[in-house]
Specification:
Blueprint lengths: L3 H18 L3 H15 L5 H6 L11 H13 L3 H9 L3 H5 L7 H11 L4 H9 L11 H18 L2 E2 H16 L7 E3 L1 H4 L4 E2 L2 E6 L3 H9 L4 E7 L3 E6 L4 E7 L4 H9 L2 H13 L3 E2 L4 E2 L5 E2 L4 H7 L15 H7 L13 E2 L13 H10 L4 E4 L14 H15 L6 E9 L10 H4 L4 E5 L8 H13 L5 E2 L17 H11 L2 E5 L9 H9 L4 E4 L11 H10 L13 H8 L3
Parallel strand pairs: 4-7, 11-12, 12-13, 13-14, 14-15, 15-16, 16-17
Antiparallel strand pairs: 1-3, 2-4, 5-6, 6-7, 8-9, 9-10
The structure holds one DNA strand of 29 nucleotides.
Length: 572
DNA sequence: GCCGTTTTCGGCCCGACTGTTTTCAGTCG
């Protein structure tokens, strides 16, 4: 039986290809909507199928139920296969270009015979796009810029796409009887926001059977190189991957070596050599030239007279000096997090009810969850106007009476309009526990205008924090032009917190900005922006990013217990 | 393609913006 994720992917692919083919808008939307319904499902999709209850789901009738059933049992369906023959796959890449949608892709294909990114780039460079109705020179330039941006982003894959894959591979390896220890290394272990490849390190007395078993894993597309201790392969998703298998005695030095970063190693080896030590992939050699046994990474640093440097800090950003003088931060961890300050419900574009979100947060051991649905300017998401918001606040207050040891906070994600005003009146905002403000429109303002706009929003005394302050979508959209340092300065001055949006497609603020913010004394909120109960689990990505920014629990708004948080927000 | 105290056809979350137009199509959230 196929994974529900495959079903969602198939429905979305059908929608994309139908749209390119010029199919009726509402038909396309029916497939998109079905994909959303399936992905938000809390019941077991396969079970619903077996009971013949798929067409009970909202937006799913006999035709879609049939197709979902086909995909569940066979991995595909006749319509999808036909569309794959009729619509070139290269056109799907074009949909990822900002400013290009299904209709335009269809025109480009039918009028100019463009079937992929390269052909589009060539046509734009040759000035052939402006021949199309609705196209001009400016749009042609925008297309070229969009292609360049897409290429730049695709060199590295967002952490959120690779980490689960790496964890699954680690799990598969750990199950092998010959494997002692195994872990992911490289930039994934350092929680870097994107990665070029997956690095795994394992310990085994005899590497050969482990390498054999690994080479046969179904996730691999092909093995590129195979040596005594190493396999290089490419996953079916096209991501390169290295596994090294070393003898148990060399595991910790190998893990450390392959965790990096290169810059950290350069500095660490410099420090070590000044003290007569040498470090390589397999061992730590003392001033006497003899290897020192290393049973953990802590020991490696300890033998060199340094405090343990967590992987997230190993970037050559002053961590060696700090480890030497004992001034490394006590990094925030998942256990410090007491709640989540940015979440959506089915009152707007979230998948689940207030109660379901509250229960999920409570089950995670949280003390609180802020409901911050979209405000009215985000019309497509069903943004709340003052009346509906007040009704939601009432519903939250009522629900709180039934939730023991847990509190839903009534909030809003207000839109920062083009001029920096908000799309709800101050008197409404004053009734809320927490006000999150964010930019969802006019992304292409110049830097000065955008910066003034966000700062004006922070100057509103009701605004508690700015969500995803730079607006980027990893691998999809560059940040808008904004002077982050000016925003940090204004945040410090106005006492406004800045969000580290934990969604792995955002991670915004990014690590380096988070570090500058905390140094300026700005409070940070690590928030998931959950639109689904499962998104609450993305918190670890935000924490990873915060750790890379040297963030301590005391810097984090949602590391505060409820009463302290309410006092900080000025609401008791 | 789905759906129905607007019920078997004719609707289907909506408003702003952009780049192209001279009244609008396409995109975005």
């Amino acid at each position: 039986m196929t994974d529900p994720i495959r079903v969602v992917a198939a429905l979305e692919e059908i929608a994309d290809r139908l749209e390119i083919r010029g199919e009726a808008f509402f038909k396309v939307r029916a497939y998109r909507r079905a994909a959303q319904v399936v992905s938000a499902l809390t019941e077991d999709l396969a079970l619903l199928y077996q009971r013949g209850e798929l067409d009970q789901l909202p937006g799913i009738g006999p035709a879609l139920a049939q197709k979902i059933g086909d995909v569940l049992t066979t991995g595909t369906c006749p319509l999808l296969e036909r569309l794959r023959r009729e619509v070139p796959g290269g056109l799907l890449d074009l949909l990822a270009l900002p400013g290009i949608g299904g209709k335009t892709v269809g025109h480009l294909w039918r009028s100019l015979g463009i079937e992929n990114l390269d052909a589009l780039e060539e046509a734009a460079q040759a000035g052939r796009l402006r021949e199309l109705p609705g196209f001009g020179e400016k749009k042609e330039r925008n297309v070229l810029a969009a292609i360049a941006g897409l290429r730049r982003r695709r060199e590295r894959v967002p952490l959120g796409a690779l980490r689960p894959v790496a964890l699954a591979l680690v799990e598969a390896l750990a199950a092998h009887p010959a494997v002692g220890r195994v872990a992911m290394a490289g930039s994934l272990r350092r929680w870097r926001e994107t990665a070029k490849d997956i690095d795994l390190v394992a310990a085994a007395e005899d590497p050969a059977p482990v390498l054999d078993a690994f080479s046969r894993l179904e996730q691999l597309d092909r093995v590129v190189a195979r040596g005594e201790t190493k396999v290089s392969a490419v996953l079916k998703t096209g991501v390169p991957l290295d596994l090294r298998v070393v003898r148990p005695g060399a595991y910790w030095t190998a893990l450390h070596h392959f965790t990096g970063s290169a810059e950290h190693h350069v500095q660490l080896r410099g420090w070590a050599s000044e003290r007569g030590f040498r470090i390589n992939e397999y061992e730590l050699l003392g001033p006497d030239g003899k290897p020192r046994p290393v049973q953990a990474e802590e020991e490696l640093y300890g033998l060199l007279g340094l405090a343990y440097v967590p992987p997230e800090l190993r970037e050559g950003g002053g961590e060696i000096e700090a480890a030497a003088e004992g001034s490394l931060p006590r990094l925030v961890s998942l256990e410090d997090i007491r709640g989540d300050l940015h979440a959506h419900t089915d009152w707007t574009d979230g998948a689940h009810s207030l109660e379901a979100m509250a229960r999920a947060a409570k089950d995670r051991g949280y003390q609180y969850l802020a409901i911050t649905d979209h405000a009215r300017a985000l019309a497509m998401a069903g943004g709340l106007d003052a009346d509906r918001l007040r009704r939601q606040v009432e519903a939250i207050r009522r629900l709180n009476e039934t939730l023991e040891g847990f509190r839903l906070l009534a909030g809003i994600e207000a839109n920062v309009m083009a001029d920096g005003s908000l799309d709800l009146e101050d008197e409404v905002l004053a009734e809320l526990d927490v006000v999150v403000a964010s930019v969802h429109s006019h992304f292409n303002q110049d830097e000065a205008t955008m910066t003034r706009r966000v700062i004006r929003a922070m100057e509103n005394p009701h605004v508690d924090l700015i969500a995803h302050p730079t607006g980027r979508l990893l691998g999809a959209r560059d940040p808008y032009a904004i002077d982050v340092d000016a925003v940090i300065e204004a945040a410090a001055r106005t006492g406004t917190a800045l969000e580290i949006n934990a969604h792995p497609d955002r991670l915004d603020l990014r690590d380096s900005h988070a570090r500058r913010a905390r140094e300026a004394g700005v409070k940070l909120a690590i928030s998931t922006d959950a639109h689904h109960v499962q998104h609450l689990g993305l918190m670890e990505y935000g924490v990873g990013t915060a750790r890379r920014g040297w963030v301590e629990p005391g810097d984090v708004l949602n590391a505060m217990p409820l009463d302290e948080l309410l006092a900080h927000l000025g609401r008791n």
